[in-house]
């Protein structure tokens, strides 16, 4: 019996097997690499958390439209959701205090408004944001008053800088020359980071009431708020 060919065949199959194992290794590695790339399609650009607070909700509808009766709470939610999406797309972490029409007070019994506000502050504290923006719609006794108005906590210089940046971006859109205004606001008073209230427009003005309900105008307002915040982060962040 000649054993030589047998040895040759065994060696030959060993080489084949080794090549197959190597090919398998490369294929598996390639698949894992593709999967890893897929999972990382939208990597976070920053650790920055932006807290977006849609004002009111549930039984607290806020102000209502002068002609359509649209609820401020519903518009606030639409604007907040679009702003949150914009920040998420840009690689930020966006946290919303509410993402549906309900309030944050539990049962609408006595003291619900305070419970609602305290819950917002609790969410704010838990998410440890770098920026807080609370979205609202305005109302004024003079129905002629129009335009977006930004507020900040009186005496809070860092929040004033943020408010000024957002106000400038909104003025460029609305053609107004409003200055950011100071006041005393529960959310801002309890915030550790720069925080503002953005009143996107007046539901007491017929023209603006209609405009504020249009998708295109909402997109423009949201864009301006986003640009204002980006300007603040670029200058002072
Ligand atoms: Zn409001």
Please give the domain count. Answer: 2
**On the 0-100 scale, what is the average pLDDT?**
90
Question: Which fold does the CATH topology of the largest domain refer to?
Answer: Aminopeptidase
In the sheet with the most strands, the strands line up as 2-1-3-6-4-5
Element-by-element helix/strand order = HEHEHEEHEHEHH
Structural class: alpha/beta
The small-molecule ligands in this entry are:
zinc ion
**How much of the sequence is in beta strands?**
5-15%
Structure notes:
It is a single chain. With 237 residues, the protein is of the alpha/beta class. The protein folds into two domains: 1-41; 49-236, 3-Layer(aba) Sandwich (Aminopeptidase). It has helices at residues 4-39, 72-89, 112-127, 157-174, 186-189, 206-212, 215-236, and strands at residues 49-54, 93-96, 131-138, 149-153, 181-183, 195-202. The chain has a six-stranded mixed beta sheet with strand order 2-1-3-6-4-5, with helices on both faces. Helix 2 packs across helix 7 (215-236) and helix 4 (157-174) packs antiparallel against helix 7 (215-236). The mean pLDDT is 90.
């Amino acid at each position: 019996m000649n054993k030589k060919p047998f040895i040759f065949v065994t060696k030959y199959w060993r080489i084949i097997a080794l090549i197959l194992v190597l090919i398998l290794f490369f294929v598996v590695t390639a698949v894992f690499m593709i999967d890893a790339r897929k999972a990382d399609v939208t990597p976070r650009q920053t650790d920055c958390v932006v807290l977006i607070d849609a004002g009111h909700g549930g039984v607290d509808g806020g102000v209502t439209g002068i002609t359509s009766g649209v609820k401020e709470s519903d518009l606030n939610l639409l604007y907040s959701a679009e702003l949150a999406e914009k920040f998420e797309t840009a690689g930020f972490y966006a946290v919303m205090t509410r993402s549906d029409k309900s309030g944050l007070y539990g049962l609408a019994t006595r003291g619900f408004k305070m419970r609602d506000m305290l819950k917002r502050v609790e969410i704010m504290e838990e998410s440890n944001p770098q920026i807080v923006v609370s979205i609202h719609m305005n109302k004024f006794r003079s129905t002629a008053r129009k335009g977006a108005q930004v507020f900040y906590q009186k005496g809070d210089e860092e929040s004033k800088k943020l408010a000024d940046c957002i106000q400038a971006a909104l003025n460029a859109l609305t053609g107004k020359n409003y200055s950011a205004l100071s006041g005393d606001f529960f959310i801002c008073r309890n915030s550790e980071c720069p925080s503002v209230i953005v009143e996107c427009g007046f539901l007491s003005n017929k023209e603006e009431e209609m405009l504020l309900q249009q998708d295109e105008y909402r997109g423009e307002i949201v864009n301006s708020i986003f640009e204002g915040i980006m300007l603040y982060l670029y200058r002072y962040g």
